[in-house]
Amino acid sequence: MTLKFHNTLTGRVDEFVSQTTNKVLIYSCGPTVYDSLHIGNWASYIYWDTLVRILMANNYEITRVINITDVGHLTSDADDGEDKLEKGAKREGKTSWEIAKIYTNDFIIGMEKFGMIKPQYIAKATDYIPDQINLIRKLKDKGYTYQINDGIYFDTSKFPTYADFAHIDINAQRAGARIEFNPEKRNSSDFALWKFTPTDTKRDMEWVTPGDLVDYGLSIIDYSKLQSHSSIEPNPHNPKSIIHNLPTMGFPGWHLECSAIAMNILGNTLDIHTGGIDHIPVHHTNEIAQSEAATGVRFSNYWLHNNFLKVDGTKISKSLGNGYTISDLHEKNFSPLDFRMFILQGHYKSEGNFTFDALTSAKNRLHNWRNIAAFRHQTHDTIQNDEEKNQTNKIIPSYATPQAIIEAIDNDLGTPEALKIIDDTFSDILSTQLKNVNQQSLMQIIETIDNLLGLQLIESTPDISDDNKRVIIERNTARDQKDWAKADELRNQLLGSGIILRDSDSQSVWEYK
């Protein structure tokens, strides 16, 4: 089957063709590191980890960037309000730099707990300030920027296709319908590229605004509202202007970092850009505008967006206390891989609904899969002739080959269909005597599941000890001799070691408790 994805850019499911044969450039919008991520955030990264895995299964070499927003993400799409890092710093009595370090590490550790493939680049916005400034400089030189009291803005009216990506009706859009309108802005959709530090404010994170970016002579600017690190010298010809070498402090807008980082590392055109559907109308629309205005070429050929995850049918909100974190799940005896299984049960384009009952079901499903994976320690590979090979094919049907699982996920990350194929296969194995299950074929399926879904079945299902194996042999002997008291005693001994025995007329199979 051809690898294909739902492409927001075209509005349809498109066959995937990379710019360079067998190489894929991916940019994923990363976290704003002012607090621990909640399960809705993690759902996105699980989907995009699956994307990376299926591309690798199709023999692509991946270069992937995840950015870290450690400055500039204001609490409002209107480019006002408090910087989220500053807000987090006040909450915890630390500096913005300290908060950024804490929650960047928290994110990286979380990725490891979820078994995610680490991207080649985890890029912090604060490490790319010069690149962001250079991008503003390009846009200014091309006539896309203007300046008002609080910063430098992108003029969306200069970019004719601005509304196309999100299908925004600019003419019908009332100022203030999407964002609170700033009367100094030329258009309600214009967005900040660089914000000036306000008067009497010293930010933890701020940088000198290069003199060639600031229109010092414009009378619209009330320079008494700008923070500087040197004295203001009045210009007798223009009382509201200041000398050109006066350093005005500021910081980048949220959207700027993604374009600057992506183009610095991956080049002007990406193969795939990922994010949540909430990024479409503002963040990604603005990324496209500023990137393509600067370069004159398409920013990304494929845009993949995952839908929201609700909790008990309600939007995740701090005020509702339903923004569960990894720690919250751990306290309720759920692992990150339990949650990963829960997310894989739904399609990334469909709205999810988290409940603890549903998470419990996913946990049980994963536990059952682990017990099937443990069968590899209890069977063997003894195919001697074509007749036995045919027998094995009946036990592990052709639709459950690793390729069948790959093809399901090839079809727009179809993890629900892949899970159904695996469940049907495991059901067949459970109804078959272990002596008739071929170890090599079972291992191929388990390895495929781990490679594509990241559920770590092999790592989480080690073989039992030789001592416990001897107890099982001793118990089977007791059963053969109808010494039921001895058999029960040995069963309880195994149970104390976390091992459960499932008996049938012909065999005893061990499972994890």
Helix and strand composition category: alpha/beta
CATH superfamily of the largest domain: HUPs
Low-confidence stretches: 174-178, 218-226, 228-245
Percentage of residues assigned to helices: 25-40%
Distance between the termini: 39 Å
Kindly provide the name of the CATH class of the largest domain.
Alpha Beta
How many domains would you count in the coordinates? Answer: 3
Report mean pLDDT, rounded to a whole number: 88
Radius of gyration: 29 Å
The CATH architecture term of the largest domain is 3-Layer(aba) Sandwich
- What does the main sheet amount to? 5 strands, parallel
Total helices: the number is 15
What strand order characterises the main sheet? Answer: 5-4-3-11-12
Task: Provide structural commentary.
The protein has 513 residues and is α/β, with parallel strands linked by helices. It folds into three domains: 16-306, Rossmann fold (3-Layer(aba) Sandwich); 318-453, Orthogonal Bundle (Isoleucyl-tRNA Synthetase, Domain 1), CATH 1.10.730; 466-512, no CATH class. It has helices spanning 39-57, 84-92, 96-113, 129-141, 254-266, 280-295, 326-331, 336-344, 356-373, 386-395, 402-410, 415-430, 439-453, 466-480, 484-496; strands at residues 4-7, 12-15, 23-28, 61-68, 121-124, 145-148, 151-154, 191-196, 207-209, 248-252, 270-276, 300-306, 309-311, 352-354, 499-503, 508-512. The longest helix has 19 residues, at 39-57. The radius of gyration is 29 Å and the shape is elongated. The relative contact order is 0.11. The model is unreliable at 174-178, 218-226 and 228-245 (pLDDT under 50).
